[in-house]
Design brief:
The protein is an all-alpha fold. The protein has five helices and no strands. Helix 2 crosses helix 3. GO terms for molecular function: transcription coactivator activity.
Length: about 100
């Protein structure tokens, strides 16, 4: 049991050093301190953390790009629907409706 505890502590210490070396602990600490020092706490603490860690900027850029793509695709869909309607109307002038041909 003692050996397991020592091995576990060693792994934890290695992981802590890894986080410290990568700057993760400093970043998290500074963001948490900033959240603590906020006079008016935000409604969503997780969004606050994401925003201050730089994650929200990436998400919002991706979101904006996707929203623009969606707007473009909707506009293209509308144009294609109009073209389709126009082509169907033209076709009606040259081909009688199916029901009319079947009735003869």
């Amino acid at each position: 049991l003692v050996h397991y505890w020592l091995a576990s502590e060693s792994k934890r210490e290695q992981f802590r050093r890894y986080l410290e070396k990568a700057g993760v602990l400093d970043s998290l600490t500074s963001v948490l301190v900033a959240l603590y020092e906020e006079t008016e706490k935000p409604n969503n603490a997780l969004d606050f953390l994401k925003q201050h860690l730089g994650v929200a900027g990436q998400e919002s850029a991706d979101t904006e790009a996707l929203q623009q793509e969606l707007r473009d695709m909707r506009q293209r869909c509308e144009l294609l629907a109009e073209e389709n309607k126009d082509l169907k109307n033209r076709l009606q002038r040259y081909e009688p409706a199916q029901e009319d041909g079947a009735a003869e």
